[in-house]
Amino acid sequence: QVSQWTRLCEISIPLAVEGFLTAAPEHCQAVPADILQLERKLGEPVRVHNDDKIRRQKLQQQKAGAKAAGPGLSKEVTEEGKTAEVDNHPLPSLELSVAFSKLHVQETSNALREAPVIRRTKTSDLPPLDHIFAEGLYFTLADIVLLPCIHQFLVHSKKQGKNLGNLPLISSWYRRVQEVPGIKKAADKCSMQLLQLPELMPAPEEQLQDFSSVPDELEEEHEDSHFIGGPRPTMTKLMESGIEAKFSPHPCPNWTIDWSNLPSAVSPGEGKGF
Questions:
Q1: What distance in Å separates the CA atoms of residue 64 and residue 80, rounded to the nearest whole number?
Q2: Where does 199-262 have alpha helices with state H?
Q3: Could you give the CA distance from residue 121 to residue 96 in angstroms, rounded to a whole number?
Q4: Is 268 domain-assigned?
Q5: Distance (Å, rounded) from C-alpha 90 to C-alpha 251?
Q6: Taking the model in full, what pTM does it have?
Q7: Which residues lie closer than 8 Å to 238 by C-beta, 6 or more apart?
Q8: What are phi and psi of 22, to 5 degrees?
Q9: What is the pLDDT of residues 195-225, one digit of tens each?
Q10: Is 86 exposed, middle or buried (0-12, 13-18, 19+ CB in 10 A)?
Q11: Same domain, 182 and 155
């Protein structure tokens, strides 16, 4: 598990939930640090390959919503921007529309041409994208891996009468995953009775820090100190089992790649970290 994200989803959170479920009641009062770490990550801005385009659409949607909230709402804005009855029926988030259009193999609606002020807006001034699913806007294997673990954690917490008010983003993610086609049917076949959680307001960052007893920096150092991976340990295990790899010279040894000029996500030394 080179990626810290993979490690969190596939190892740390399952182990944390298992420990939470098996601990004595007096020892499971605090939310596991790995669960809180997931809550924090769900609050970070999303980055996708068409990030700029979607963020401009979000800015345009926000401006349309602001106009609708003010006096003198025109019929044109109501029809094209779908901004009627803002107070009672708020616009679905652009991220949610993009996410579920991907699930239904459809392109996102882009009927409205971007206004000049939207096109001229600097990328740094565009609104960030919010998480819809674990990795960002799109439903991935990470959501499937996390769902049973988070479900067991929530069920146990509810039985213990714990307040989940400090985990609003995880609660929102849990509700949203249930909307994915096939999830409820799969859960029924696995005898998972999915909970219907109320919508919660996001908790301040300081509150999340108070609930966590392990700072991010110390946690990463702790993880790295126990991480064993890479080619050397693997080759050693193979050799101990009597298996020896034979290497041939690279056909083009003079070829080099300047990883510093490429996104960190494609670098073998970086992976998808935090």
A1: 10
A2: 205-211, 216-226, 231-240
A3: 23
A4: no
A5: 60
A6: 0.56
A7: 244, 245
A8: -95, -10
A9: 988 776 555 554 444 444 444 444 444 444 4
A10: middle
A11: yes
In the beta sheet, which residues pair with residue 133?
136
**Residue 119 pLDDT class (50, 70, 90 cuts):** low
What is the spatial distance between Cα 166 and Cα 26, in angstroms, rounded to a whole number? 20
CA proximity to 31, closest of 185, 168, 213: 213
CB atoms within 10 A of CB 140: 13
Q: What one-character-per-residue DSSP string does 107-154 give?
A: PPP--SPPPHHHHHS-GGGSPPBPPSBTTBSS--HHHHHHHHHHHHHH
CB 171 within 8 A of CB 164: yes
Verify that 16 and 68 share a domain, yes or no: no
Q: What CA–CA distance (Å, rounded) separates 5 from 38?
A: 9
Q: Which two tokens stand for residue 130?
A: 């919010």
pLDDT reported for residue 93: 58
Amino acid at 166: N
**Which domain covers residue 34, as residue numbers?**
4-44+134-219
- Claim to verify: residue 40 and residue 161 sit in the same structural domain: yes
CA distance 125 to 67: 19
Domain boundary among 125, 148, 181: 125
Collect contacts of 16-23 with beta carbons under 8 A, ≥24 apart: 17/149, 17/150, 17/152, 17/153, 20/153, 20/156, 21/152, 21/153, 21/156
